[in-house]
Amino acid sequence: MNDIKTLMEKAYRNHIVVPSFNMPHLPMMKPVVDALRDTNTFGLIAVARLEWMKFFSVSPEAVAEEYARQGDPGVTRLHLDHVPVIDEDHLEVDYMDDIERAIRAGFQSVMVDGSRLQLDENIKAVRYVVDMAHSKSVPVEAELGAVMGHEDGPMPDYDELFSSGRGFTDVAEAKKFIKETGVDWLSVAIGSVHGAISPSNRDKKKVAARLHIGRLSELDKALDIPLVLHGGSGIALPYLKEAFSHGIAKLNIGTDIRQAYEAHANLSIAKGRDAVYHRVMEIVKELGIAGSADTLLSV
User: Residue 236: what pLDDT?
Assistant: First the structure.
């Protein structure tokens, strides 16, 4: 297995979070890498299928080519984010082709998202990907539960969703899922939401989400593997920092830096990049993770 698996497990054991920055626009990559290098912070450069289908990252191959130019093995690795089995438009996806293409292009870890499937179907799809990816020494992330936000239309009332726990990752199901898939780390639903992707809503501020730390603690104790929090932008810092001590080893950040880029890129690419650089520097400071590359990459 390549070293991302070891790095994630080290982050998990040491309660250090690895930020994973999504790239809906290729010019965003350089300032993210620059900020991670300048703070000696370890992070992932990531792209999801919807970011080459509905934004401007072109293709997994294009992202890998840009990463070959901009990436820095001293502080970054390249991760394939959400490749859904059923996408946000409720259409079937040739997910194996997307994942195989990404691995051929040089992605060092991959995510298959079967969260819109029934449990047994999700397990079957993830197991299929795990068998293929592990044969190529590539670790796999999957998702169990419903992290909302990508679908078109108004979201259900957030407070009602949170109080009911609807869509939260079930502990017993998660134990079965981990055992039967062999997945390396798991994205869990505990209250976070994705940023909107529809053109009419993608520039709007996200709902102020919070996290169910009690459910997260149960999952951590039951599973004992690195856990992932998607929809990290906009969650209050006290929730995030408590989550890092209860199993969250990877935090996905997309909306925060995308909106910074888009708000300035209409003036120039350079101004967009500058906005991203400064926002990543702020995020590293807020999360208290500057210098994490020394700990995670030390032998």
Answer: 84
Residue 271: CB atoms within 10 A of its CB come to 14
Domain boundaries, the chain: 3-292
pLDDT value, residue 201? 53
DSSP 203: T
Q: For residue 141, what are the β-bridge partners?
A: 111, 185
Residues 6 or more apart in contact with residue 221 via CB below 8 angstroms: none
Cβ-in-10-Å burial (0-12, 13-18, 19+) of 286 comes to exposed
The runs of H, that is alpha helices, within the chain are 3-14, 29-39, 49-53, 60-70, 95-105, 119-135, 158-164, 171-181, 213-223, 237-244, 255-265, 269-287, 292-297
Query: Which of 209, 200, 91 minimizes the C-alpha distance to 154?
Result: 200
At residue 204, the pLDDT reads 60
Residues of the chain scoring pLDDT < 70: 148-160, 162-166, 194-208, 299
Residue 19 phi, psi dihedral angles, 5° rounding: -75, 140
61-99 pLDDT, tens digit per residue, is 999 999 999 999 999 999 999 999 999 888 999 999 999
In CATH terms, the fold of domain 3-292 is TIM Barrel (3.20.20)
Nearest Cα neighbor of 193 from 145, 226, 250, 121 is 145
Q: Which two tokens stand for residue 194?
A: 């994705």
